[in-house]
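Fold it.
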Amino acid sequence: MTQGKRMGSLLTALLTAVAACKEKVAIPVYETLPVVRRDIVVSVNATGTVQPVDSVEIKSKASGEIINIPVQTGQEVKKGQLLLQVDPRNPRNALAQARANLEVALAQQANAQSQLKRAEELHATQAITEQEFDNAKLQAANTKAAVVKAQTELENSKISYEDTDVKAPKDGIILTKNVGVGTVIQSATGGVSGGAVLLKMANLDTVQIRALVDETDIGKLSPGLPVAITVDAYPNRPFQGTVLKIEPQSIVQQQVTLFPVMVRLPNPDHLLRPGMNAEIAITVGERRNVLAVQNAALRTQRDVASAAGVLGLSMDDVQKQLAAATPARTDSAIGQASMGGEARTDTTARQDGKTVMIAMPDGREVPAPEGFTAVDAKKIEAVFAKMRSGGGFQSLSDEDRQLMQRFRQASGGGAGGGGGFRVMGGAEQGAPSGNTRLDRSQRRQQQANLAFGGSYIVFVTRNGKPTAVTVRTGLTDLDYSEVVSGLTEKDSVLILPSASLVQAQQQMDQMRSRMSLPGMGGGAVVGGGRPAGR
């Protein structure tokens, strides 16, 4: 092949590649989705094993050969029921000997009392010496002590004889059986070894699950939270329990820090058995039938510029829209007003021309409500730190409580609103007259909601044009977020590509521009920079 032919083939291949690159790749600019009502449930998931609440190891106080075991593993027994019998012959013989010894001691005591009575009469007539009279009194005292000793030995012999029948100390189920008929055992009280464990039993009316929870989720949990439990044996039958306690000592497994969490649940049918693997879902937040928006529609101040560029809006346009927009009242705000609270708009506090920001427990910064100063913001952050350290709401001063209560109310967290900012405990706005204390379930729910919610920017279609709107969110399940203010059911939000996708598009455009040849019209924009139809 000549050099001219090779150059012609190379040019043809290059032109073909450039033509292929110039074909537009259909990348959707955005998707429009309506604001809908839905249930939002946030839970912490973990795995664990079923354990009995109170198990008992059965040992024998008697020594000897086992002659009878009338129970089997899995059998339900009642308190006082015979579980195991040890050979009673030696204890029975010892009991008979103790009874005979007591009879001898009683006879000796009676004889000594008669001798003492005669010695008293003779001593009164000075027929016997003083020493002989003292000997008679000593003999009577010795026989009395012998009677007490014989009675004690008899009682101990009775106990030893009764101990040959090992009985159930409580109602329960036999979990394990470690011995059989013919095994010779040693007394648990008479030997230094403490005796062997013969049986193990437990009451399974109530069981518990020991689950290991990641340290990143442990701050969301508190005793009393509801728990949904599933086991492999009954995949279609969920069980319900509550968080009993969170162990203070962590466990490190494969360089991951975990904390044991104990979950207690009723087990009346004894379906759950010790050792079963269980999956638990601890509900830390729940909203029913609330306005919700996809998290993909939420934008922060950092990435709003890239989203505006996709829509063909400048940042000046976005800032003007945000300044002119008046957040619509959601049903949450209406519910708050109906219960005596004030329906607020999405106003923020400003100082020296700057928005006052508050660092939330999850690391986000949110605008402070109107009327709050920078000093108030620092105090609120200090209260968050105090509650995170384990002090809880009860450790706060009256001044701190009043500040957090005002912060909650100003942030749209009324009794009917389910807002994103909550405080733990204290009086609840909209509560019945005279009831200034929340019950435990409400306090736990408010504690769980403390770290949820924030202020974001979404783009909606209004008057046929994309418009930036500030919204305040509440609970989120990572797919959807509760809308506290800023949107209504009539709105539709725009699901925009991420900043990384926009950047990738721009890099692709630059690459095509560099690859274009003179006269080929290079530099075409792939995918477009404006909404379809504009």
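The two ends are 52 Å apart (CA to CA).
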